[in-house]
Amino acid sequence: MTHYEALFTPLQAGSLTLSNRILMAPLTRCRAEAGHLPSALMATHYAQRATAGLIIAEATMVMEHCSAFWHEPGIYNQAQVEGWRHVTDAVHAAGGVIVLQLWHGGRACHPLLNDGRVPVSASALAIANEEVYTPAGKQPYTTPRALEDNEIPAIISGFAKAASNAKAAGFDGVELHGANGYLLDQFLRDGSNQRQPPYGGSRANRARLLLAVLDVLCDIWGNDRVGLRLSPLNSFNDMRDSDPIGLATWLAGELNAYQLAYLHLMRADFAGLQQGNLMEAVRSAYQGVLIGNMGYSAEEANSAILNRTVDAVAFGTAFIANPDLPARFAAAAPLNTPDPATFYTPGAAGYTDYPNLTS
Fold it and tell me: In whole angstroms, what is the distance from residue 141 CA to residue 54 CA?
């Protein structure tokens, strides 16, 4: 008997054929090598989790000098493309489907991680009351400089080049990172965007950069192999919006015309500062495949799919500690407990050494 049967029904997400609806959320794990090169250890890690209906690989730098995590991977040069090719080959050999999350850290970057360069953002507003890991230890975030309007085409071109590189690296698609207080989210939400038009003010202006990047990704990949991640409620990285539900609902309506592979929605706020019934609001406005994320149990995820609130659920920390998470859900088996002390540390410990049910 298979438990949680709705989780195990196939799903067509654009051109992506998913064998189940238990997706692996993008998880920054800081295991890249010097030069932001994907490592052999990363290939092992992702291949171990290839039974996910879809693997969404971690936030990956689309251009130089946008590092926010020190040891995160990039996709802006040929050596990185070759490193990622080992990852995609390993996942495909194990029967998996994998897309790459394309990302620019914006004001979450730090000069000590980026050859002394001042980070850029929508406005010259620093992340407050949080710190970033650097080679000199934890440091407060610095004040970014606001991108000039005439610099924005270069940002869009950086995403376009990264999308082409992801195709060369053998991915099955890409996910655009528009969440969690990174560059595109910094433009989208009015707590971090105090610009004048054309990239500030109205919702349409604040979404202009995100949608322009989506346009080029869809040109390169086809709309049916592009996903988008959003987190309208999440206050991580000192983020706010004056009307997060209104923004999300409006944007969901705009996204219908794109006919994306999927929309990936973080449903809550890590800190609980902003509240709202986000999933139902977006579900009512969005006509495509909707993926939910943040704190779902197998039972809740199964119910949400049966109720058509979502079409699939992306699991984060559960996949960190359980490479065979779908098998465990199918058997209603106990889950391994993740070790937060190893989430961002180098090496195999807490990364590739969690046991399977059959181990």
Answer: 34
